[in-house]
Amino acid sequence: MSRRLTPALLAGALVAAGLAGCSTDTGRQAAAPTGPPTATGTGTPSSAPSGASTALPGSAPQERFAVGVRQLDLNRDGTRKLPVTVWYPAAGEPGDQPRRSLPAASGRFPVVMFSHGLGGRPADYAPLLTRWVAAGFVVAAPTFPHTARGGDGNVLDVLNQPADVSYALTQVLALDQRSDDPLQGRLATDRVAAAGHSAGGVTTIGLFTTGRDERLDAGVVFAGTALGVGTAFAGAAAPQLFVHGEADEVVEYADGKAVYDKVPWPKAMLSLPKGDHGRGLLSDGVSLGVVSDTTVDFLRWTLYGDQAAKRRIPAGAARNDIAVLDNHL
């Protein structure tokens, strides 16, 4: 990176991201992964390692699902409490309003690990994340021990969070084989993405750089920066989608764009000329709709192998003329 990392520099770049909760480089070019079995269970799971292209056609579910929610009480190394909110496609009447104790819908669903911003909590992002779930994804979001609302606000702990996410991912994927768990047989364990906002965007970038988790097939970065985790993208190709407001008052748009430019894999950047650091994303219905539709189709393509979804991305991003897409997918 061009700037030397110091505690003061990292804190100065990220401390204002409390708004987020409210409410030499490496890497190789390769083909994007193409599709696990469909959510209806009609396909055959791939035996290829996660992150590798399987060249299997796929299609995402066309129906919308009800949204179930539960919590896992995890603790990494006995010293880092990590409550994880898990939203999942559920049986019942479709809708974005999550309900506890709903049975899981039939099928196998890809997993998305989501990281909140400094001073935030997973529930703050429910308006976006439940739309992902209703489209056929399991979303698991840790509450980080120091950077969540109610924590001590130690911004430097962001650098420990990629390992937290990898640990939580292991625990979530294990549910698929647990005979007494409601999600047994419901997880497409070879189709996983990471996403995050602000400090959670730093966390997500770290999962593809210094803390590369090879199980990850794709990433979605909202208002992120590489400060502390670098831009040495490593491992098998994992397509990336960046979303950033050009009027971001916390993480400068140019900083997010600089990270995006370093991604060596298929990538796209959704820029919102009037977008701020993210508050408007969850309260502005028009912006949320465009961001939601674009991210859903990106995840449908990267995790289900749905080529029709990939073709829809440019049109969805252009809807209502509030965003501009730089597309290299």
General description of the model:
There is one protein chain. The chain is α/β, with parallel strands linked by helices and 329 residues long. It has a single domain (7-21, 63-328), classed as Alpha/Beta hydrolase fold, catalytic domain (Rossmann fold, 3-Layer(aba) Sandwich). The protein is 27% helix and 21% strand. The protein contains nine helices and ten strands. The protein has helices spanning 7-14, 18-21, 126-134, 161-174, 199-206, 253-262, 279-283, 285-304, 307-318; strands at 66-76, 80-90, 99-100, 109-115, 138-142, 187-197, 218-222, 240-245, 267-272, 324-328. A ten-stranded mixed beta sheet has the order 3-1-2-5-4-6-7-8-9-10, sandwiched between helices. The chain starts with 6 loop residues before the first helix and ends with a strand.
